[in-house]
Automatic annotation (TrEMBL):
Substrate binds at residues 143, 375. Binds 1 pyridoxal phosphate per subunit. It comes from Solimicrobium silvestre. This is 2-amino-3-ketobutyrate coenzyme A ligase. Homodimer. It comes from the Bacteria. Residues 50-393 form the Aminotransferase class I/classII large domain. Transmembrane segments: none annotated. The gene is kbl. Pfam families: Aminotran_1_2. Gene3D superfamilies: Aspartate Aminotransferase, domain 1, Type I PLP-dependent aspartate aminotransferase-like (Major domain).
Amino acid sequence: MSAQTTKHQAAFYTSLENTIDDLREAGLYKVERVLASRQGAEVVSEDGRHLINMCANNYLGLSGNESMVQASIKATEEFGYGLSSVRFICGTQTVHKQLEAALSKFLGTEDTILYAAAFDANGGVFEPLFDIEDAIISDSLNHASIIDGIRLCKAARYRYAHNDMADLEVQLKAAGAAGKRHKIIVTDGVFSMDGTIAQLDKICDLADRYDALVMIDECHASGFMGATGRGTHEHHHVMDRIDIITGTLGKALGGAMGGFVSARFEVVEMLRQKSRPYLFSNTLAPSIAGASLEVLKMLSTNTELRDRLHANTAHFRSEIEQLGFTIKPGTHPVVPVMLFEATVAQKFAARLYELGVLVSGFFFPVVPMGQARVRVQLSAAHTTEQINTVLAAFAQAGRELNIIK
Ligand SMILES: *Cc1c(COP(=O)(O)O)cnc(C)c1O
């Protein structure tokens, strides 16, 4: 601490240091890995190591892709670097309107509004639409940004046990008994820790029975879930039964940043008038809008990337089980490889790093006690050869640590 520190400053900064120390001691301190390369199937770490990357949300492999780089340069040349404005003053360009229209077409909705991030979309979607007379019924494992967005809104909150349709029904009945005007069920389309796909067919049936609307957060689904990659609503054949879709441009759909809400005209119109993260935050950079538009063009003409991602996922899921590892069953490219104990998960991830594989270990309190794991995320950019190299590293580290025989 510098010499000029006053007493009240010292008290403040010391308390921060103590809290950080507590995080370190509790094993909750987050260290950021520094990459010296583009994002991709293979990355180079700061110290020059080449690693096969199995922990990015780069589902379609577009993040470091050369065609994306060129599309963003082209959009920058045409529309400039930035807008220095919010949308409603002088920050809306043709490329933003085109992207909003293309997203609506892709998702099967009427209209779309762009945000700087999906965090902002979820943070700004509830407050303009729902009031003290209304009810929001939310899955208990919904993303942090949904939780924050609901907090910013005056509607009554009902939480249902994760993915539990019986409890959802209980909560819908409770909201009905409380005489709530509008009810909306909110769920992640796919939950990122387990790769669990929300039961949207059942959720929509319950919504019909109890006069509720349905909102899904498609951050881990847009671009690759469903037969043509439209999302979880396509996967479950309920494309015409969802009221509000939120999503990100920062995962499968290119991987830079940006978010959106896609819904009926009335919803989007209200958000343009009232949604605070939209009204009081800068326009999405034209490079991102232009490149995202190219992504949607590509995904609308063929399903090649989506198909490769699912083939890679099926291959990895089947082979890792053959090796004797326990995984959470499913079909999503998020594959939790269960190690149960936190220390095992930490050692395993560290050993894989030495063997040239980048995965992230998760343990309590990020996942429940005794449910420690490494979470593998497949990408369309992975070659079969790379996946087999990863499987061999899992086998070696697994035998060394007595996880498998
Ligand atoms: C990643 C994620 C977000 C946040 O997306 P950003 O565009 O990065 O802000 C929101 N919801 C879910 C479910 C996510 O996985």
